Amino acid sequence: MIVILKPNTPKSEIDALIDKITGFGVQVSPVIGTELSILGLVGDTSKIDPTQIEANRNVDKVLHVAEPFKKANKMFHPMPTVVDVNGVKVGGKQLAVIAGPCSVETEAQIVGVAKDVKAAGANMLRGGAFKPRTSPYAFQGLKYEGLELLKEAREATGLPIVTEIMSPYDIDRFVADVDVIQVGARNMQNFDLLRLLGQTRKPILLKRGLSATIEEWLMAAEYIMAGGNGQIILCERGIRTFETYTRNTLDLSAIVAVKNLSHLPIIVDPSHATGKWWMVEPLARAAVAVGADGLIIEVHNDPAHALCDGNQSIKPAVFADVMKQIKGIADVVGREVR
Ligand code: PEP
Ligand code: MN
Fold this sequence. Notes:
Blueprint: E1 2-5, H1 11-22, E2 27-32, E3 37-42, H2 50-54, E4 59-63, E5 83-85, E6 88-90, E7 96-100, H3 107-120, E8 124-126, H4 144-157, E9 161-165, H5 171-177, E10 180-183, H6 191-198, E11 204-207, H7 214-226, E12 232-236, H8 252-261, E13 266-268, H9 270-274, H10 277-289, E14 294-298, H11 316-332
Parallel strand pairs: 7-8, 7-14, 8-9, 9-10, 10-11, 11-12, 12-13, 13-14
Antiparallel strand pairs: 1-3, 1-4, 2-3, 5-6
Helix pairs in contact: 3-4, 3-11, 6-7, 10-11
Bound molecules: phosphoenolpyruvate (PEP) and manganese (II) ion.
């Protein structure tokens, strides 16, 4: 962090500001000019509120040289984090492929889809039990019954289960029942939820918020990591742009950017990114090509009758084809598919 002082700030006031900043435990290197003076701050500046410094009447502006996320930052943790979900690794050489319906609907549906995606090569099962729907009149999920059905599907296939949490009240239940707790796009900045998930040691799938910048998203990861839980898988699921042809705009550059900024693994959700089932396969290929550590894909046995997101869900046979296609790309980029 660099603090630029207003011209002709008296020495006594510069010294007072240096004392204040040193109190935060960082080192201050002043460069005092005849008119302009600057203070270079080195060390852990995460405890300093830059707006408070900027509020000082002698300060002209504060410039940031390091990212505000520290624990999620590759600079302080150069080795990639590999999240281990009951033996399924996310962030290693093997791609992690999570597949399953948007929502858990019936026992036959979730167990049937789980068996189909497993046969095609998926290594985790997804399925929403608590659904964050735009309309309060739309299907809200089977809730706790949905969690029970997911457990049955895990029992039948051995696939770890990934499902979305909506309320901090359900954390204990999720910790006991599921293998990866998903934080949906709409809750990416639910800071109370993030903080409490930081107290657990469960792998967290952190989806990018609808309009979140990469920095805001990594700061959300930082909330979880600040509590001591470093088991985070980031998920790019498309962002809001002016384009309405697709449900969202898949930001493929975010994968490359995150790989440059953070050690956390990142996967891509081409289903929510596009909202169109026939776009899932080409974008799954693109995601693997740019270096994603895996995919999360909506698969439904009967998309035309799905209770949620049927239009973006692919059938098991199409999913099997996606697995073949991404294997070809994985070979080229030095990754593996189960
Ligand atoms: C989902 O995965 O079903 C979901 C609701 O995703 P998102 O939070 O990305 O919209
Ligand atoms: Mn969905």
